[in-house]
Amino acid sequence: MIDVPMTLAGLSKVNMENVLAVTSATLALGFSVEQVADGLRSFDPNESNPGRMNIWTLPISGVAISVVIDLAHNEAGLEALLEIMNGIRLPGARSLLGVGTAGDRTDDVFVRLGEIAAVGADVVEIVHKQNYIRGRSMEQINELISEGAAHAGMEIERAHDSELDGLMSLLGQARDGDVVAIMTHQDREILDRWLLERGGSRDSADVLRAKVLK
What are the structural domain ranges in the chain? Predict the structure, then answer.
C-alpha cells in the first residue's frame, strides 16, 4: 500500500482521482512503489503546482483565515474548489468565494457558475479577469452569474474589476476560521505577492493536516 502524504489529504475527489490515475500509470510504466510514494510525499501544491488549490493561512487582527487560490475556470473546477473550502473551514465558520472566469464561455456556463457558487458558499462576489473578457462586457458577466445565484436564492451584491480587489473585499468580511477562495485566472502572482507582504504563509503538510483533521 502507498502511504498518501498529508500534502495530498486535502484534495478534492476530482483531484484525488487524478492522483490515483497518475499512480496507476507510473506503476504500469515500471516505477517501483517506493519511487511513486517518494514522488507523492515530496509533492507540494504550493511549489509544484502554482495556482492549483494553493492553500494559505493569513493572520488578520489576531485571527487566522484560510485562503485558497485556484485556477478553477469551469463548473467542475468550482465544485472541487468548494469541496476543498468545506473540508478545511472550522465548524461553524463560513466560506467566502470570489467567482468568475474568462469571457469565452457560453451563457449557460456563467449561469451555472453562479448557481453552484450560491449553493456552496455563504458569501459570493464576482471577480473579473479584464485581460480575458474576450468579447463580453463585465456587465453581461455580472448579469449571468447573478442570474445563476438567484436560482439558488442568493443576491450577489458586489462585483470587482480584479481578482485582488475581490480578495481584499472578502478578507475584509472574514472571521476567525473562515475560508476565502478566489477563482484565479490572471492575477495569481499578484495575489501570492499580496498575501506574502501581509504575513501570509503557504500551508505546510502539518498545517494542512490540522485543518483537515480539525
Answer: 6-43, 54-212
List the grid coordinates of 126: 464576482
Q: Report the CATH fold assignment for 54-212.
A: Protein-Tyrosine Phosphatase; Chain A (3.90.190)
Contact 17, 83 (CB under 8 A): no
Helix axes 75-88 and 13-28, enclosed angle (nearest 10):
100
Which residue in this structure is represented by grid cell 476543498? 84
Tell me the three cell numbers of residue 118: 450560491
- Output the pTM of the full model: 0.81
CB 151 within 8 Å of CB 118: yes
Give the list of residues 6+ apart from residue 3 with CB closer than 8 angstroms, or none. 37, 41
Rounded to 10 degrees, the C-alpha dihedral 64/198/127/190 comes to -140
- Phi, psi (deg, nearest 5) at residue 95: -110, 125
- In three-state secondary structure terms, 105 is coil
* pLDDT given at position 212: 87
The answer on pLDDT for 115 being more than 70 is: yes
Size of the chain in residues? 214
